[in-house]
Amino acid sequence: MSLLDGKVVIVTGGGHGIGRAYCLGIAREGGTAVVADIDGAAADGVARAIADSGKALATQVDVASFASCQAMARKTLDRFGKIDGLVNNAAIFMSVPVTHSGFQAIDEEEWDRVMTVNVKGLWQCSRAVVPAMQERKQGSIVNISSNMAFNGGQGMMHYVVSKSAVVGFSRVLARELGPDNIRVNTLAPGATLSEENPTNEAMKNYERTASTRILKRIERPEDLVGTALYLLSDLSNFVTGQVILVNGGAVLH
To answer: Does residue 206 have an active-site annotation?
Structure first.
């Protein structure tokens, strides 16, 4: 029996990078991956990659829109009749990059956009998905934070603030949903090589970061999959409100 046999899990931002790795891992462990991404073509591509050996459904979603999140949940329920897990992974950072600058140089419109997607998006997706979990009195939500929420990474204050907010959001949601037997946890990756075609400069940055870790190598999307699967599976059925850092020992928490 595989780890996620029969479970239906929505992954936002599932069309690229780490989100794609989560989807492939879910399908590999017997689950159904609902690949949700604002980039509909990318979501379709991941679902097709899974189709030969697993189960997947692609859906386009804008997590900044509650109506779009509701449509994502309805499409999943219409096809599978339930939702067992939600990975709130969609964020502005890599596939939709943020400005690297001091806090005074951040554009107000960009600040608001980062908060809308990275923080409000979690709220919107959870509002759309949780009622289906409450009906069945079970479910697991995994919210994705960042190593930088714990080391105060410089040059992207809006991103770091948004990922710090994920921790608070998760803790409150865990308390609210505990009576419904719905678990809520936070996974915080370190700097992860998730670009499809990284530049030489990017690779140098990853290598520099790797040298500061206890485990001295570059972090890759696959390094995060095991922890996500654990949190989505019944192996963690008494774990909620927790933060797990997966960063090779870059930050100890």
So the answer is: no
- In tens, the pLDDT along 92-118 reads 975 556 667 788 888 899 899 999 999
Residue type, 18: I
SS (H, E, C) 210-236: HCCCCCCCCECCHHHHHHHHHHHCHHH
The pTM of the full predicted model, rounded to 2 decimals, is: 0.95
Domain ranges of the chain: 8-246
Annotated catalytic residue, options 22, 159, 206, 230: 159
49's tokens: 């990659």
Contacts of the segment 133-138: beta carbons below 8 A, 24+ positions apart: 133/83, 133/84, 133/177, 133/180, 133/182, 134/177, 134/180, 134/182, 136/82, 137/180, 137/181, 137/182, 138/84, 138/181, 138/182
The pLDDT tens digits for 42-63 are 999 999 999 989 999 999 999 9
Q: What is the CB neighbour count within 10 angstroms for residue 184?
A: 28
- 8-246 belongs to CATH 3.100.10.10: no
CB of 11 within 8 A of CB of 82? no
